[in-house]
What we know:
Layout: E1 9-11, E2 14-18, E3 21-25, E4 28-32, E5 40-42, E6 52-54, E7 84-86, E8 88-92, E9 98-103, E10 108-113, E11 116-121, E12 127-133, H1 135-150, E13 160-163, H2 165-168, H3 174-183, E14 191-194, E15 199-201, E16 204-207, H4 214-224, E17 228-233, E18 237-238, H5 243-247, E19 265-266, E20 269-270, E21 272-273, H6 279-295, E22 299-302, H7 320-335, E23 339-342, H8 347-350, E24 356-358, H9 370-375, H10 384-392, E25 402-404, H11 419-432, E26 435-437, H12 446-457, E27 462-464, E28 469-472, E29 475-478, H13 480-483, H14 491-504, H15 507-528
Parallel strand pairs: 13-14, 13-26, 14-17, 17-22, 22-23, 23-24, 24-25
Antiparallel strand pairs: 1-4, 2-3, 3-12, 4-11, 5-6, 5-8, 7-10, 8-9, 9-12, 10-11, 15-16, 18-21, 19-20, 27-28, 28-29
Helix pairs in contact: 6-7, 10-11
This protein binds 4-nitrophenyl alpha-D-galactopyranoside.
4-nitrophenyl alpha-D-galactopyranoside is lined by residues 48, 68, 71-72, 165, 195-196, 232, 266, 303, 343-344, 362.
Amino acid sequence: MHPIIQSLTVTARQSRSDTDGRILSGAEIGITFPFTPKEYLIHGWQSWSLSAWVDPTRRFLSPRPTTLLPGQTDLVFAPEKRPHGSWLGAVDLPEGGILLLGALGLEGHVFLHENSFRGVYESGDGDWFLGAGDERIVFERYAQLLQRRFGKGRAAKEPRVWCSWYSFYKQINENRLLNVLADLGDLPFDVFQVDDGWQQGIGDWEPNMKFPSGMEALADTIKATGRTAGLWLAPLLVVPSSALYRQHPDWLLRDESGRFVSAGYNWGEPLFTLDTTHPAALEWLDDLMKKVRAWGYDYLKLDFLYSGSLPGKRYADMPREAAFRQGLQVIREALGDAYLLTCGTPILPSLGLCDGMRIGPDVSGVWESSRDSRMLANMATPGARNAIRTCLHRLWLKPLVQIDPDVVYFHSRQLSLTAQEKLLLQDLARLCEFKATSDLPAWLRQDEIESLRSFLQENPAITQTGRYQYVIGGRTVDFGPAAEMPTPLSGFEKVTAVFIRWVSDQHWILNLFGKLSDRAVEKAIQKNG
Ligand code: 9PG
């Protein structure tokens, strides 16, 4: 055991020694260390939430836009200016290595106050792992302990996925997808995954008019090419325009005063969520999963799952993450042997129930938006750097679940990413071994097709040489600069930020941006496709 463990002051109901550290028990525990850490590892609640090593003395603005926060971070802790994390936190040790405090149960939170950790369970009591030493070894041990409690994914090999989102976005239709399927030829994709845009509405999971032959016919055509048919759904979400909302308002999660709990804003509407403890809602979820399996989809990307863990007053009175896990369990059983990829999901509560997990926010053809990351202090918005940063701090999950860093790009049209930035995204996918793209073959030059083919075929040897440094197939790759936090705002920028932050909270702005990006996507498809 690392000698530092003996020099800590620990307040916990119980403490016993473990390989590489200690197992502590308590609803609230404290650990004081005899040094002042220079770095603190914050860990975001769900797939898209920021995870990074940060300067513990730096005070961050709370992220904006407020309307998107329920879908990006743990709303309960969004106003916190001091560093805190979901389930775990870590600091650097003066002699090298790290000290990690990680919850072994649900609803755990770790705060750093100067030179002490405070670990808190939102409800009830629970265990914690306190580990010290080499970063990789400490996280390996934490992952082992989590596996004992939650289990691990079952899929043998990471799938190679073509996903419709990052080229067509919502503008998919039957013809467009069939054309891509034909154009993919013999490129070695295991899965052809239909993303958002096929459904009648969020909550109404039947094909819309753009899929006149129906979802079963599409799955048949996909399977005839030797690939697994994949489908996106956000099964827990409900929007006001849906039939589900009108027919079953009693299934929705409400707060103490009886109002629907907000799950954020998207598709030009407020988002609400099913109460995953409501028996009728669970039955509906079970039917929905069996229906999509019967259509022929054996790979399911289930998205916006965080909504099932929002605070609220539930049909059955139980802690919010446990309530979500119970719902996911029903989904898992209904899906049988299908591959389940969870997305926008609280991390610990879905361990053991899914095969793959998105571990970062969406990528985009843009490296970074200074407006988003600096003015709005939001690092969960789509962007290559945001995706890389958070994923790098989630690689430790690999022994527990297949880790999806989102898609990579090989095409060079309508992208502002440089060749190096595209390569960095590809290298991240090589680390994760989960390879996906949305590139339209028609957008790719011959040399780009060949790069894509070898990316999909090859598994280069990888060795880690530093926290963010790797040798991948003989090349030295440094993710360090991408992992850094954005620089603080200057005096003048602070003034502009006040305005930008206010504007970002106006709904019409989000709708306007949505419409503009829909038009840009359509133009790109028309021009290139
Ligand atoms: C489909 C997409 C893709 C993508 C998912 C998810 O408003 N938001 O904060 C927000 C975050 C992520 C997001 C959409 C909206 O993307 O990650 O791969 O499936 O949904 O709509």
